[in-house]
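Q: Convert this sequence to structure tokens.
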Amino acid sequence: MSTTNDPGNKLPTPGQRVSRRDALKIGAGLGTAAISIPAFLSACGGTNSLVSSSTPAAASGDKTLRVYWNPGHNYTTYQNVIAQFKKDTGWDVKLEQYQWPDLRTKLLANFAANDVPDLVEQPGAWVQEFALGGKLLSLQKYVDKDKQSTGFPDDWQGYTVDGSTANGEIYGVPLHLTCNLPFYNKDLFAKAGINSFPTTWDDFLSAAKELTGGNVYGFAMNQDSGYSWPWYLQNKVHLYDAQKNVLTLDNDSAYEALQFQYDLIYKHKVAPVPLNTGSYDGPQKLFSAGRAAIILTGPWDIKPILTGSPNLHWDVAQALTHQTQSTYTAGSGLFIPKAAKNPDQAWELIKRLTTLNTELTATKEARMTMPRKSWGSNADVKQTPIISAFGQGLTYAEYDDALVKNVATTKVSAINSLFDKAFQDVIYKQAPVAQTLKDFVAAGNKILGS
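A:
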């Protein structure tokens, strides 16, 4: 997948568990304290441009860096980094913000027109996909030159670097490292007489029924198909068999995972039909408004909840267990397109956006979790209880990039589209689950075999 991320990753193809040793470097010692709502967080919105492009250089286009960014990561921390970059270098930054699906569509059009931005934030699996397609600039010369000063790649969790590597060369730098876990409303749980968060699918359904009533739903599902992956993983379902070069969602365990999600909406009526938009923040908004007791999400939704609903009493739980306890590890990263006009300046900005100090500041501001080993061992991080659950979750979260490593870019894109359509046909058109997944696998395997 996404995955690495952030939420835009559609097909995590998970199969390899993150080692406990690696994950504990990220979250060891964080404890399991409940979330508190700190007062020092910034109230910065999530949709404003990070930097205004109003200087004479920007107007003339002579010294302007074009950057694509996800609006959910519009942190004051990054605003300050970019402002200092402008001051130090004299280069302006024209920052364009898009949700992941729109960013991908825009980027594909840019590639086709050979008119690309200088720097792109991406949700995880795109690095290998586009690198193998010849669309990205190898960063190896920059990495080799600045290895000592940046600490990259040695100070990054090894599997995140693997996800940014293709054909033995590095094409991207990981920015965030996350996993998907349940967020729950403690007041609604107390009102329903539920003393602890459920641990199994059956217990989850029972709790969701107790929590649903009036204008409150027990659970809010995301319209983004990538958010369906925890259910598959908990049923030991993976997307792709690299040895056989086939998709593997046509089995009873896969049907059960998607059927369970469908039934939450249409049979048990404990979840609303998700809004069919290009944004992944619908469940977070319901949760912040006290209208959904549980959502599945990651650190990217912590800041919107804290800043938008500072009096909400909530916590983060561990992933459910069915055949196994699991979720996916995700994140985001940065890459430079091969045809970028200003790669040296883009690399300079990458270095500034990924320093340890920048990571620590973004964590303090937004509770985002990060890929540096030194971030995980930092004393301030260990004393931040709000992210402790993610440190634990990363001990069993799964990551695998088998599909994008073994399959051509155009085929991966086509399979992504088919997976989205299958999910949406079930959730919105109430298509039969088993037949829909069978059709998806058949169509996807035709693509793989072509």
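The longest helix spans residues 409-429.
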